[in-house]
Design brief:
The protein is an all-alpha fold. The chain contains 14 helices and two strands; from the N terminus they run H-H-H-H-H-E-H-H-H-H-H-H-H-H-H-E. The chain binds zinc ion (2 copies).
């Protein structure tokens, strides 16, 4: 009798789990009849599906970040500042995001390798995975299957989603669906195979540079500030694009998601905070559409254009209220 009463209290949606709610992550990954975004649904997050490599990496960087103030030197602070700009703006914003994920312009080979190098140093993982996951975000933005929507929780969209591992089969399907163009590119295949090595090899370089400059104290300071502190600040800024700019700010264009333009995220991320503009017109190389929407990364793209390193820059700002081109990735 008690069981009957409990069952009566449960709504039909809760009492009838969908097909995928009964499937494991591996089963979803292996089932071609299911859309691959089902492998990103938050219900998969449980102990056995935690990506411990990502977790350990993030934990170590955050420990380094907390220790760094005790080893501060002005030189190390400057190294962190310059590297932060190179990684966050040149690497992630221009390289991974506007160039790779959205193909908003073309780059000369040296410029392409330059932006990919700094994106690698940002420690945000594989370029192909970054671009594929980001295209999925645009396609499913704030709907079921968006890898990092705040509708699934603010903390989920900011960081927790990163700890959900993906089986090889899921990655394979994700790549084939979302980045077939990049899979064919030999340069991107090269970057994909070498980014881990380059990232790990960079830490001793910071240490050696600091040691050569000022002995052991500077070596430790260069490592902690140039790698850990800089990287953690950059992480949280980037992650705010996934969390804060889908929560707080103003809207210039009507889109099908909750994206907003947020000035403080734009400052922290060299222009990425104008996220409503970006969701409305994702192929545009510029995210700031009004004169006061400062977009430092676009200034860098312009500079690359003037010096002949960037061409075919998609930069025509649509009239406010113009039909969104959000279907174009
Ligand atoms: Zn978004
Ligand atoms: Zn985007």
């Amino acid at each position: 009798m008690a069981t009957e009463l409990v069952e009566q209290d449960v709504s039909p949606e809760e009492s009838e789990p969908t097909k995928t709610e009964r499937l494991s992550l591996e089963a979803v990954a292996a089932d071609d009849s299911l859309p691959i975004w089902e492998a990103f649904l938050p219900y998969h997050m449980m102990w056995k599906n935690v990506d411990w490599v990502v977790f350990a990496w993030m934990l170590s960087m955050h420990i380094g970040f907390l220790i760094a103030p005790f080893f501060f030197t002005w030189e190390a602070g400057l190294v962190a500042l310059v590297t932060h700009f190179l990684c966050s703006s040149v690497g992630i914003c221009i390289g991974f995001h506007r160039y790779l994920a959205h193909r908003s312009f073309k780059l000369s080979r040296p410029a392409e390798l330059f932006v990919m190098f700094w994106a690698t140093m940002a420690g945000q993982g594989s370029p192909l995975r970054w671009a594929a996951t980001h295209r999925l975000h645009h396609q499913r933005s704030d709907k079921e299957g968006d890898p990092h929507s705040p509708k699934d929780g603010k903390l989920w969209s900011h960081i927790t989603w990163l700890f959900l591992r993906q089986p090889d089969q899921a990655i394979d399907r994700l790549y084939k669906k979302y980045i077939p163009d990049l899979l064919k590119d030999p340069v991107m295949q090269f970057v994909e195979k070498t980014y881990g090595f380059i990232l790990f090899a960079s830490a001793p370089v910071y240490f050696a540079a600091g040691y050569a400059y000022g002995g052991l104290p500077q070596a430790i300071a260069f490592m902690l500030w140039g790698v850990c502190f800089r990287m953690v600040v950059s992480y949280h800024s980037t992650w705010c694009v996934n969390s804060a700019t889908h929560l707080w700010g103003y809207v210039s264009y009507k889109t099908t998601d909750t994206s907003k333009n947020n000035w403080w995220v734009a400052l922290l991320t060299y222009g990425e905070g104008w996220h409503n503009n970006h969701h409305a017109h994702p192929r545009l190389a510029r995210a700031g559409h009004r004169w006061w929407e400062i977009d430092i990364s676009f200034w860098v793209i312009r500079l690359m254009e003037y010096t002949g390193q960037a061409t075919h820059v998609v930069d025509k700002i649509p009239a406010l209220g113009a039909k969104s081109t959000e279907d174009e990735l």
